[in-house]
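Pinned message: reference record for Carboxylesterase type B domain-containing protein
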Amino acid sequence: MVSPVLDTPSGRVSGSLRGSGPDAVAVFRAVPVTTSSPFGDPEPAAPWPGVLDCTDSRERRALRGDGTVTVFAPADRADLAGASLPVIAWVHGGRYEEGHGDDGWYDGTTLARSGCIVVTLNYRKRFAGFLPLDTDDTDESDGTDGTDGPGSRGVADLRHALQWVQETVAGLGGDPDNVTLAGQSAGGGLVTALLADRRADLLFHRALVLSPGLPRISARTGWRVRRALARLFLRTPLTRTRLEALPARRRAA
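Predicted structure (C-alpha cells):
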C-alpha cells in the first residue's frame, strides 16, 4: 500500500502506514494548522509547496508544536472522499501548563482500526495561552475572553483546529457533521469553554468531558489573581508588546 497523502487547507502532506491489510492505519504527524506570535491571534498556517513530510518519524515528532494536529484514520479510506466515518477531536490535559496531543497515551490507532478518525488537537499553554493581557496603550485589561475564563488565545487555537477538522476530514472519509469533541483534565475544562463559545457552535456536534480541570473559585476572581501574580513575577505590564520582548525562557516559566 502506498504512503497516504492528505490535502489540507495549507497544502498536501504525506503520512505513514501502521500495519497492513484492512487493519492498516494512516498517521499524519504534526500537521501545521496555525501560526502566531507568542501572544498573537492564531492565523492559518502559511501555504507550502509540494508535499510536506508528516510521516511518523522521530524527526517529525521533534517538530511538534502548539499549532499542529496529528491524525489517525483507517488507511483503506484515507484517499476516499464522501464517506461518513465518525470523528473524535481530542484535547489533551496538563494543568493548562504542559502536555501535547502527540504524547503516546493519546495514540488513536486502536480507534482508527474500529472505523473512527481521531485528530489530536494542540493549543498554547501557560502565559502564552491563558494569561489575560493588558492593552498596549493602557495598563487596563483588554476585556477579551481571558478576563472571564481560560484565556482567549488557547481557546482560539482550538477553534482554529476544529475549523481545520471541518475542512479536512472529508478527504479521509470522515463526516464533518459527526464530530465529537473530547478532553480530559485541563482538556475537559477547555471543552466546557468551547461549549460556551458561540463561535464554536458549528465546529462540533457532541462533547465528552472527562475529569475536567476547573477552578475552585470563580473564573473572574481566579484570572484576576493570576494577572496579579504574573505582574509580580514578570515585573512588566502585561501587554503583548512587553511580553513578546521578554526572553523566551522567562515567558515560558
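Pinned by admin. Summary line: The two ends are 45 Å apart (CA to CA).
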